[in-house]
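Moderator note: this is an archived Q&A kept for reference. The question asked for a predicted structure of one protein chain; the sequence and the answer are reproduced below.
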Amino acid sequence: MLRCLVWTLVATCCGSLYAQRLGEYWNTAEEEAKYYRIVELPIPKGAGIEAGSFDVLPDGRLAIGSRRGDIYLVDGAFDENPRLNYRRFASGLDEILGMSYRDGSFFITQQTEVSRITDTDGDGRADRFETLNDVWGFRHYHEFAFGSKPDRDGNVWVALCLSKSYHSEAPFRGWCLKVTPQGKAIPICSGIRSPCGIGPNEHGVMFYAESQGPWNGSCSLKVLQPGGFMGHPVSFNWYDLAKNMGDKPVEPNSGSRLLTERRRVKELVPYAVVFPYIKMGRSISGFMVDRTGGKFGPFENQMFVCDFSLSVVMRATTERVNGVWQGACYPFREGLATGLLACQFTPRGDLIVGGTNRGWPVRGPREFAIQRLDWTGKTPFEIKQINAQSDGFLVTFTKPVDPATAGDPASYALSTFTHIYHRGYGSPEVDQTTPRVVKATVSDNGLQARLQVAGLVQGHVHEFNLAPVRSATGEKLVHNDAYYTLNEIPAE
């Protein structure tokens, strides 16, 4: 009990410190609200629903999987003015951090297994609980398991947290496994530290969200590359259980740089998108691609990424260059009520988010909450997307730009940095440089600016500030900043 009290005090104090610090970077909630309003989805009094996963049922109900081990079915969650009716479908499960519904059953990922749960008699309550696969080990409460929705072949991908966050004391801790519809587990990759979200990127390739910590200078999105090594070598001890993976990789050198070690360790997979610490989240979590057909605004086919600690939602875009995944992240919406673990797009094209503050410092003030982001129908003036070019970047905007400001190279401030790749916890931003935009060419429709840049740095995060750019009607950008992880420079 004393330990819980200490953590509560730490969470309260640290949470307000993080809130103060975040204001230095975004401070845009009032402007964001003009375009995306926050709608409360009330939770029944006395029901502690710490949402860890969501899905939409064929009959139009929302399904919620809770960290406390319950599955709830909810009517009314998608109504413009929601008046919700909750019904508990199942209980007694353990940390539901992955859920989907298909063929009359729920497929859930909990700490110890992937399960199939069914209501066989039609009374609205689960009565058949089947273990689909439980090949991995479990010894400690912090050994979380995050499961994807089924891929196109019906496989559930499971990202397994390390033991006690720093060790690998049970089989496959720090690995990703693919569980087939028949229940077979296939090892995919090693080197995971502390995942908190897993699913496809906008191109249908499986990614996961990694947290800052040992061997991870900041949070990031990484591709789950079959046979790959995600960067943390403590899980190498389970290669004997994964014959399909071949020999374990060469040990990386601590204190190096990721680009340097990529050249030594052929299996090492770089971060696809780095989320600079505090500037863009502190513990990124669940993510989902906007497939709403424009119902959620101008960001169709982009990834929306939650953050647990700072209670914000961000955007990300990815592309494959020279065979390597990379991309950018962008601010989107702050001011959510709790630590976010999961998100789900609705049939109406809104984004439901939810989570809890249990266990760690969280900016949002509530113990738990479920909220919805609704697009107001107004298009914000934003940096829509950044793509790498052989001599710079292509910046796409959500609205036509003013050619005078967008065509002025001085409107684009660029800086770069990387992180120390080491066994220590996190990393400062190091090896900073200041590239220069020497030419900015605006497209005929005003939606793009092609930037010719002197001083691109492979392996660095390129930080953009576009504060002087205006729309054709004189609007300021809602968010001035974006961050592109340049693993590879495209060929001519």
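Archived answer notes: The domain at 2-375 is CATH 2.120.10.30 (Neuraminidase).
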